[in-house]
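WARN no homologs supplied; continuing
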Amino acid sequence: MSNNLRIAFRFLTARKRSMLMSLAGIIFGVGFFIVTQAQTSGFEQFFIKTILGTNGAIRIEDKFQQTMFAIAAEGHDAGASKFEVAADRSARKYIKGVEDPSLIMEALRRFKNVSGLSEVVEGGVIADSSFKNEAARVYGIRLEDHLAVSDLALQITRGSLEDFRRSQQGLLVGSKLAERLQLRVGDSLIMQSNDERRRYRVACIYETGVGDIDRIRIYMHLGEARSLLKRTSGASFIQVALFDRDRAPQDAVQMSDVLRHGAQSWQDREVSWLNAFSALQISAALTVSTIILISGLGMFNTLAMLVIEKTKEIAILRSMGYSRRDISQIFLWLGAIVLTIGTLGGWVLGASVTYAVSKWPIHITGIFTAETFQVHWSIMHYVVATLSAAVVVMTAAVIPARRAARLEPGDIIRGTSQ
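OK structure emitted
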């Protein structure tokens, strides 16, 4: 241990109460910063997992054709303006649906990041039970393909997927819709589309946690959906699962360019909710950081008073040959000691409270359903909290350190030091 560090530890005990208050502020500031970030990012990650497990990473839908204006824009050289590029994308004529899903899926399988594909035929129906009727949306799927691009197998709350596999007349009904129609597994349900009325049987009831989906969506076999909706060919969209979900925007652009179909990534679909989560994280970080800032101001005041109280000791040290740099280092060591103990204590507090919160029961419904607080463990929360504390604490230590370094032994003895 260096002499400067040893002296810093001696000075640290000179104002115990003030130092402990500042230290406690740093511990609580770092700890609560970690907890709030773990919670906000936890709910964001849970929302993303729910969305990906329901609607997939990318959707391929609506073939497009370039208009004459867009074709003319494509003829420009590489130096075309942003306006011309934007005009090229906006001047497209879209044809609803996917005309040749087999061909598109064959091309999609060549993308290295694609882990699964599911052809879906969608249409509106009236679902009529013995209790009442409700407007619903039919999703015709091949079950095995759709299980590869969603978490449907994990979302079944009643019934068995094996019953759905065996029966072409089987249905997978959302929990909210089943509740509104008073349906149970095995009940009959009449589906009406245009002039077509057919009777089906509820094989399973599922719950995604997304109210808007559970309230309206019914899954059925692809062939039955084509027959009911009178869609003999084509598909409404193709749902795509990816190995790396974060590459969805780049893959969507490439797929759109290659396939001449619209391709929308999950980030584009849910941009409003993702922006809301980001704003919430920033707001929570700024709010909790005020605790660290106030603690830093308290520490600045403590170190400033310590300089005044230790002027005689500083004069003795200077007369013994300590340089201005040595005196400055002593007070910077004081800040570093408080920072180190404070961040380590904050890490322990943050991890403990985060774990306790993750076990706390809570019932949330709306954009997703959760039974406990969701937390996301990330080393970056600890790094950012530490950097925030380091900036505040070391800034608070620099000014008193520079003031102590400017003190001259002669001025202290004469009583003229500033």
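The longest helix spans residues 16-55.
OK
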